[in-house]
Amino acid sequence: MKKTDVYDIIIIGAGSGGLNIASFMNRVGFKVLLIDKSDKNIGGDCLNYGCVPSKALIHIAKLSHDAKEIQRFLKTKQNTAEIDLSLVANYVNQKKEVIRVNENAEYFRNKGMDVELGVAKFHSKDTVVVNEKLFKAKKIVLATGSRPRTLDIPGINKVKFQTNETIFDLKKLPKKLLVIGGGPIGMELGQAFSRLGSEVSIIQRGSDFLPKENPEISQILCKKFKKEGIIIHNNSTPVSFEDAHTIVVEKEGKNIQFSFDEILISIGRQLNIEGLNLDKAGISIEKGRILIDDYLRTTNKKVFVCGDVAGSYQFTHAAELHAGVILSNFFKPKILWKKVNYDKLSWVTYTSPEIATFGLNEEELKKRNIPYRKIIQDFTEDDRAIVDENTSGKLVLFIAKGKLLGGTMIAEHAGELFQELVLANTLGLKIASMFGKIYPYPTASRINKRAISQIMV
User: Fold this and answer.
1) In this structure, are residues 319 and 385 in contact, taking their beta carbons and an 8 Å threshold?
2) Which of 110, 227, 262, 322 has the CB geometry, 3.0–4.6 Å to 174, for a possible disulfide?
3) Which 3 state secondary structure label does DSSP give 406?
4) How many CB atoms lie within 10 A of CB 281?
């Protein structure tokens, strides 16, 4: 092997979390080495297979849906043209490449950091090897992300299945798309393909899809899906594949056959920790996860984890949260370090309508014995919701001592409408400050004031 190069910090994985840490440490003058498998891997799952391509696809699906909806107001009805999925795929890739201009090896090298492309593994507690070259650092951050879990049932070898890493490359719109898994990925992409023209069925193992969401909220989305022609099968377990286009599913004690042209498997994520030689670094694993403390340190105190590989919330902004905690602690004495805390985390499921959630949910509040008041606000009498045909929306808030503890909203653009609620929750603001705010009429965010007014008058 070649002579060991020494760095202040090495980051393995150039997704959201890794890039945040590498870029900041580079800007403030530290010697940084960023490692990823290839130039195309830079940007991580979010750029390549997740947030960016899915939202680009959802944008086109919305255009298609709106084109059909406008038929109600045309004097002469028109046949909606068939979607050319190859053009959609081109659009998705074009948007990825626009963002990739600032997320590639040469860009970061020009910014002053070193970038090594190749497979990294530990050589010792503070040394990694890539391309038969040794690199040593005072601190190392693992930000290797996750990948889709695959379905392990008899006959899987007969099927060419899709995951979020492959489905955006489809060039032909499937007539029948079967989605296995009713989490955010399955729901977002299932609805998108339905709006593009596929017949979509969703298979969910449990009794509820989006199981992390408030059922009274997620059921509103279920009704919307059914209205759009999407079929959801709860309490359904895939048993086997009969052939390349037929699956057997157990539902209510009966085996049912489903046919499909394409199948999307979205049953969760698997952490990318194989092949890292973690044992050589003194990093312990338990039940397939890296053991970490509240500061995101592994059992090797020189090595930290960031993003999906931490094994908690698998969002791009969760990786940003991790990066913030790690960077903050790097510049403080240990006694002043802060722990990672998810109590103020928020997230959005980008279906139509969107589901936006923040803070503590009702189950957690009860678990912690925190007294709270539950506020439920529907959209039926909201003027903007009436004209926008968004009256099925609902907002649920949990409030104590005049402050927001958490909540959930389902509505078109809920991810934008709830931002002031997230701000109030994050900063611990009194809700009276929101009640005193003058909202332009008829902005959709007035629903927040309407909800809060329930306890202000």
Assistant:
1) no
2) 262
3) strand
4) 23
